[in-house]
Amino acid sequence: MTSLKPSQTVRSALTLSTIAIAALLSACGTLAPDYQRPAAPVAASWSDGAASAPTTGDQSAAEIGWREFFTDDKLRQVIEQALNNNRDLRVAALNVEKAQAQFRVQRADLFPSVNAGVAQNAQRLPASLGSTGEPSITRQYTATLGVSAYELDLFGRVRSLRDAALSQYLATEDAQRSTQISLVAQVATAYLTLAADQERLELAKQTLSSRQETLRITQKSHEFGASSALDVRQVQTTVEAARADVASYTSLVAQDRNALTLLVGAPVKAELLPSAGTQAALTLTQELPAGVPSDVLLRRPDVQQAERALQAANANIGAARAAFFPRITLTGSAGAASASLDQLFQGGQGFWSFAPQITLPIFDGGRNSANLKVAEVERDIGVAQYEKAIQSAFKDVSDALAQRATIGEQTAAQQDLVTASQDAFRLSDARYRRGLDDYLSTLDAQRSLYSAQQGLITARLSQQVNRITLYKVLGGGVRDGSASPQEPTGTPAQQRQSGS
Hints:
By secondary structure, the protein is an alpha+beta fold. It is 60% helix and 10% strand.
């Protein structure tokens, strides 16, 4: 180690003390405005009046894990596969890691960077420049430990930038959670859509088979003179229409499988594909408590992400304000220097240097004022975007609740329509076979039944998708039911303190 003289030891101690004092001075506050959450620009209750708070014992959607909400085991396996393989979710997770690293980079500016170095400086002088008339080579060896351009953050510029980076990091976490919620809902919806289209395809195949049999009987009847050629052509039109539907739904089922594969991020095993139609409920059948907007909306990760962005813009105002004040930077080093390497760490070779610098902005052509204006406008933009996120979330929940209020009645009515259409077709077909009516009435009854059956499949699908949509817009889909999600807690100031 370097052996320093008593005076040098005192000077080095004073230098280190100055740096320590500077670090303490930089622990002051910032010039950023005190953050206040904007008031939610929405009504105090949902648009359809379903704003009653959950009763005792009810779980909010955010507290119900998706494993608990989705009751079908095959669907749960498909969702889990999507959470492990989906590329959008993977990008969101990588963005979190990137933002975390960027925050650490920004936070590092709060602390002095201490560097150690060993250097050699060799120089050769020609004989014409040497004092002895001979060429000479000089060497100098140095070993240093120092701090370079450490900024005393007296006015909070660096800490404001740190706070902005922290808010941006937390916003990426919120974005990841929002992506996961959307992915869970998209996979479940795609799964149910595939099941519904498979049921439509099966219905079309059954209808085609039934109409082909009717065509065969009608042709035989025409051969014996019991039916007209018009009857044959009318039946044939229904057969061709059913054939077209079979081809259309076959293509649609293949497209549904491709869409599900894209969401999952990997091929889905055949045994995990839906086998039942839309009759089996694959989600919780009890109603989710809607809660009140002020509680529900602020828990949604997309709303939290918008608020994090607003907090980052608010912190940037502090950095812009600090630019109007002097910046103090410290550069200091201590070490040893010698003309020979073997004497570098011997006594009497120590040296030190200390170079504080103060930069005071006097004239910048309005740059600092313009930067402050930009920061303030970005904060105002953040407020508008946060309020828009609140309003969009309120609309999402209100729409889902409005549909939930009537979807059950629509499904029941559609089921009754199918029953009535079946009876109408049976009676019309019986009258046609007895020669009481022509085939046109039977054809209309058959088309009405087919249309009612298709409508029932659509109604059942809408009912299940509505449950998924309501679960999503109320903030469900982050928890898997086995562990609590890692969510940031505490006030922004507490989060900044834990982050530093």
